[in-house]
Q: What sequence folds into this?
């Protein structure tokens, strides 16, 4: 895909995101034909944002997440600073059509992982991590039928990135824990609760982090020091309503909360 086409496609998607509107599909001349085209479109977001890139998300790291958006594998997306909220913040509900919240393990990088000729292994990626945080992601899509848009368009759509809440930093003991077997309990006010395990995230949140580092490396992108990487939902996505309070209890690793506006 030519740069001018990628820029036009990105501007169109960002316009819908800011307006809270949707489209059926990108116009044929701007529609990505591959994951590579999708990432070329997504990359233009950084120049359209007023702030430096804040971090990365991984979409569809669980079978439930893949089923939810109609894809068969994970996708990387950019976390823009203007979509990030502190723990226990009130988020505007707005025109969100996905209407789910997702408890996630999020890693803050301590040093750069540059593109390389060989894949990174899990050990060296985890050694580059400065801290683990609890997190909640609230995804959304610019496509009216996101389950049928396909991976290339969803990558262009920033892998369904929308709002993100960063919870507290976990105690350093996480490094010696089996995160794959770590239990997480999420609550939607008094309406219901749902639980899951770290293994729901590509088998282990650390495996998901390594996947992201290598996905970026393949595209010549550095996973930079200071970036937050949120690794995908470890619980079946939680159906949300306006005015809802959401919490995710990660046990000894901490609890993260958010609430939605009533409108």
A:
């Amino acid at each position: 895909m030519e740069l001018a086409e990628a820029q036009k496609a990105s501007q169109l998607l960002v316009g819908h995101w800011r307006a809270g509107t949707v489209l059926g599909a990108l116009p044929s001349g701007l529609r990505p034909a591959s994951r590579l085209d999708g990432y070329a479109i997504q990359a233009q977001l950084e120049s359209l944002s007023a702030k430096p890139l804040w971090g990365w998300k991984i979409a569809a790291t669980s079978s439930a997440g893949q089923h939810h958006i109609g894809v068969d594998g994970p996708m990387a997306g950019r976390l823009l600073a203007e979509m990030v909220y502190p723990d226990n913040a009130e988020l505007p509900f707005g025109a969100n059509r996905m209407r789910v919240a997702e408890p996630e393990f999020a890693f803050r990088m301590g040093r750069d992982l540059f593109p390389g000729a060989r894949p990174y292994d899990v050990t060296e990626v985890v050694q580059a991590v400065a801290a683990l945080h609890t997190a909640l992601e609230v995804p959304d899509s610019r496509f009216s039928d996101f389950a049928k848009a396909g991976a290339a368009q969803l990558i262009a759509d920033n892998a369904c990135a929308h709002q993100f809440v960063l919870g507290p930093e976990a105690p350093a003991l996480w490094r010696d824990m089996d995160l794959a077997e770590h239990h997480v309990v999420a609550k939607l006010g008094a309406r219901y609760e749902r639980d899951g395990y770290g293994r729901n995230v590509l088998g282990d949140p650390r495996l998901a982090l390594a996947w992201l580092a290598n996905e970026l490396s393949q595209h010549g992108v550095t996973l930079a020091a200071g970036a937050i990487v949120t690794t995908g939902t470890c619980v079946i996505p939680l159906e949300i309503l306006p005015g809802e309070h959401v919490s995710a209890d990660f046990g000894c690793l901490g609890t993260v909360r958010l609430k939605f506006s009533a409108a």
